Each structure stands twice: as structure tokens, then as C-alpha cells.
Recover the amino acids of this structure.
């Protein structure tokens, strides 16, 4: 068997590294970036400081922040309009997954003028992504999705809310400035939910069925870093815990090029149907999804248990650890505590079986399995 492994992105990591941005733009002959963010980040002091810093060094900054929490196509078209009407030469995505996904979709849209969803990867649309794209820079402000190191954007249809995936290696950032100082003031709930998303990425990537020992190694170290730091980052944050969470979230997203699994397929329908926060949806579902995966994969769970320093190296001990971690970071154990009702279960199961993540789960998942997992977690 012949395999291909890709780890191409340049990552500048460390406290204060975002201050390198003006010089980086200058070195690359860029002076007119479209800065894409979300309405919350746009009002934070560190964001205003970044814009001020760029402006004071002669960079013409245009900020676009008119986006939804779960981004839709019209967000992308508005951003594209802002890019052209103000004559931009590059795109900087600053924020969590939503902002960076919109930035990446605008990046695609600039030189690909067919309907945005013609490029949907799920219908093979990636083959139409053939033109060059502008220079693209990402700056994460949460430690969770890892979208900054990704090459895809999830954008929903405005009316149907159906999620489409835009994908191409061309959509990778040229450089990532990962500065843990930007994550210092994240509120505890966002830290917990995004952190559990990062843990889910690392665990699902490690268990995913494809052969990818490089991603497996990254995922295990990502799990170790989250084990060491998530509780502290939520309850008593300091620069060390924030730094470990940020690098672990980047590692999770690098690792999940190998694939995700049952937990993300349980989580995605909650966001589509009930607008549940993606990280929260994963956090509540991960103990149940992992329990489902144990039988037949005891060796892999043993390696996860060792990484978590558990005395009992069984899969059941890993599941117990996940419940306890949720308790420590104030995440509920039951779907009913986050707004799911028994009448939602059939629709959720329909959406989950159609989801793109579970085909990479180590074992097959049927619609009946999804229904039972939702009922168990309810
Ligand atoms: Fe995720």
C-alpha cells in the first residue's frame, strides 16, 4: 500500500506572535487585507489593537464581520462584495471556526464565480477549484475547531440550513499566527466547549480507521496536552494552560485529516436542528460515542488510557474519565440538559446517518445505532 502524508502549513506559535503580522504583510508585498472576523471578536480590545497596529504601519485595513454563528452562503457573498468594492489584495481570518470558515469561503469565491455550492466537496465540486486564490492568513482566537490549519469551510444554505463543505488544498493558509494571548480572556463556557471539541478531534482522529501513524502520534500528544491543561484553562487560566490548549487544538485539526467518527456525526445534527454550539454538542456526546467504539478496539483505548495516566487501562475507564472531565468543566452529562427532547430523536438519527464524519469511524454505525446512542444520552 502506498500512502501520502501532508503537513505543509507554516505555524508561528507563541505569546505575542501576532505582532509579527505587519512585517509579514510588508515582506510579502501585501498592503490591503480584508480582515474577516465575527461581530463579537470585532469589538474586543485585542482585535482593535491588531487593526490599529496594522493601520499605524501603513496597511489599509477593511474589516468584514457581518456573519452568522453558523455561517451561511449570503455571509460569503457579502464578504466577497467587500473584497472587490474596496480593492483588497489578501484575506486575514481572525476568530473561531465560524469566522475562519467564512474567510476561507470568501477566499475561494474571489476567483471562482460559479454558484458557491457548485464547489461542494460532497458532490465532487473540489475538481472545479482550479484557479489561484489570494494570499490567506489565519489567526485563531479560540482553542477548539482548529479551522486555522484546515483546508475546508462548512457553509450552510440560507434557507434549508443544509451544510455544504468547500474543500481544496488551495484553501490552506499560507501562514498561521497562533498567539495564546488572544485566548486569555475566553469565558469558561467557551473554553470548556471548544476544548472538548479539540479533545474529540484528537480522540476520533486516533481511532479513525485509516492508516496514518503520523496523525496517530500527533493525536495522542494532543490528548496528553488537553489532559494536562483543559481543567486549568477553564477554571484558573494562565498562559501555560492557554498555550497547551491552543497547540493541542491545532494538533487535533492536523490529526483529523485522517478522519473523524461517530461523535461528530452525533454532534452535527444538534447544530443543524437546534443551533447547539458545536463544541458543546461534541462534549455531551463524546462519552457515549467512545463507549460505542470500545468493543474490538481495546488496544487503542489502552493507549488512550495510558496517555491519560489512568490506572485502569480499559475503554470503560476512558469513558468514565470523559464524564468526570465534563463535570470538572461544567458540561452536562445528558442531551436533555441542552435542549434535546425525545421527539427530536428520529430527525436527529436521520441527519446523523447522512453525516460525512462517521464513515471514518473505526466500526460501522447504523441509523439504529445513532438512535440508540441519542436515546442513551438523552
Ligand atoms: Fe469539531
Amino acid at each position: 500500500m502506498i500512502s501520502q502524508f501532508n503537513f505543509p502549513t507554516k505555524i508561528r506559535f507563541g505569546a505575542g506572535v501576532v505582532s509579527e503580522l505587519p512585517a509579514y504583510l510588508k515582506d510579502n508585498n501585501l498592503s490591503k487585507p480584508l480582515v474577516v472576523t465575527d461581530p463579537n471578536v470585532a469589538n474586543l480590545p485585542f482585535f482593535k489593537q491588531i487593526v490599529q497596529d496594522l493601520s499605524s504601519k501603513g496597511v489599509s485595513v477593511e474589516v468584514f464581520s457581518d456573519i452568522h454563528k453558523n455561517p451561511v452562503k449570503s455571509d460569503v457573498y457579502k464578504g466577497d462584495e467587500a473584497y472587490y468594492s474596496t480593492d483588497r489584495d489578501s484575506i486575514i481570518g481572525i476568530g473561531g471556526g465560524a469566522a475562519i470558515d467564512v474567510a476561507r469561503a470568501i477566499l475561494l469565491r474571489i476567483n471562482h464565480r460559479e454558484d458557491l455550492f457548485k464547489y461542494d466537496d460532497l458532490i465532487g465540486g473540489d475538481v472545479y477549484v482550479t484557479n489561484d486564490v489570494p494570499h490567506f492568513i489565519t489567526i485563531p482566537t479560540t482553542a477548539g475547531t482548529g479551522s486555522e490549519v484546515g483546508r475546508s469551510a462548512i457553509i450552510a444554505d440560507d434557507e434549508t440550513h443544509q451544510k455544504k463543505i468547500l474543500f481544496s488544498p488551495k484553501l490552506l493558509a499560507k501562514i498561521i499566527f497562533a498567539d495564546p494571548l488572544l485566548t486569555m480572556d475566553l469565558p469558561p463556557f467557551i473554553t470548556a466547549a471548544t476544548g472538548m471539541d479539540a479533545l474529540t478531534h484528537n480522540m476520533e482522529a486516533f481511532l479513525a480507521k485509516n492508516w496514518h501513524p503520523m496523525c496517530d502520534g500527533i493525536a495522542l500528544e494532543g490528548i496528553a496536552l488537553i489532559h494536562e491543561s483543559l481543567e486549568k484553562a477553564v477554571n484558573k487560566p494562565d498562559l501555560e494552560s492557554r498555550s497547551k490548549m491552543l497547540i493541542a487544538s491545532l494538533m487535533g485539526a492536523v490529526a483529523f485529516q485522517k478522519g473523524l467518527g461517530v461523535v461528530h456525526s452525533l454532534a452535527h445534527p444538534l447544530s443543524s436542528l437546534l443551533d447547539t454550539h458545536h463544541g458543546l454538542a461534541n462534549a455531551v456526546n463524546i462519552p457515549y460515542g467512545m463507549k460505542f467504539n470500545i468493543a474490538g478496539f481495546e488496544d487503542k483505548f489502552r493507549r488512550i488510557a495510558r496517555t491519560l495516566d489512568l490506572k485502569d487501562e480499559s475503554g470503560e475507564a476512558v469513558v468514565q474519565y470523559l464524564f468526570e472531565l465534563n463535570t470538572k468543566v461544567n458540561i452536562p452529562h445528558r442531551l436533555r440538559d441542552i435542549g434535546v427532547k425525545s421527539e427530536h430523536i428520529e430527525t436527529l438519527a436521520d441527519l446523523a446517518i447522512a453525516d460525512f464524519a462517521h464513515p471514518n469511524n473505526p466500526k460501522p454505525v447504523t441509523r439504529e445505532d445513532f438512535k440508540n446512542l441519542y436515546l442513551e444520552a438523552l
